[in-house]
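Why do we care about 3D structure at all? Because function follows from shape, and shape follows, mostly, from sequence. That is the central idea of this module. The next example makes it concrete: a single protein chain, its amino acid sequence, and then its structure expressed as tokens.
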Amino acid sequence: MRKIGLISLGLLILYYCLTFTSVERKYKILNEIIKDNDFRLDTICNQFDDVVFFDDNLVDFAVWDKLSAQTQKLTNKLYKIRENTIRYSSAGSDTLLVSVLDSDCSIEYKFLYRISLPVVSSDGKTALVKITENCNCGLGGQGGEYLFKMIEGKWVMTNQFNSWIS
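And the structure:
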């Protein structure tokens, strides 16, 4: 019985090592997604948002990656957005600007974005990210979970889930 437990533990450790994506790599992927899709996230909440999983938004993840996605969802909660890490480009410019982090994310009539750390496939070519823009005014915002795939060197949005507009 103990041998089965040790083998199971060994397999779990091996699985984790094979599917692990570092936080630094997730920041890199997130910034690539922002750049490649021309998102202008000038002010963002300093706490990562939580991705919501349903059967349909993990459909493009391999069976191997679905367990990894659940693990990433749990571990992503451990992190806050670090200063000077999220970058975007202004309209018509290739110059990258640093997103301003806001620690009070619920002030009325204050427009900001909330983002999640990406949940990344083991091959690093598929990512699920939650992005919300909100004015904190009752009506006026949009959001959802967005699936991105690396296609010809760019992150392309291929699907969206749980989308809303108010």
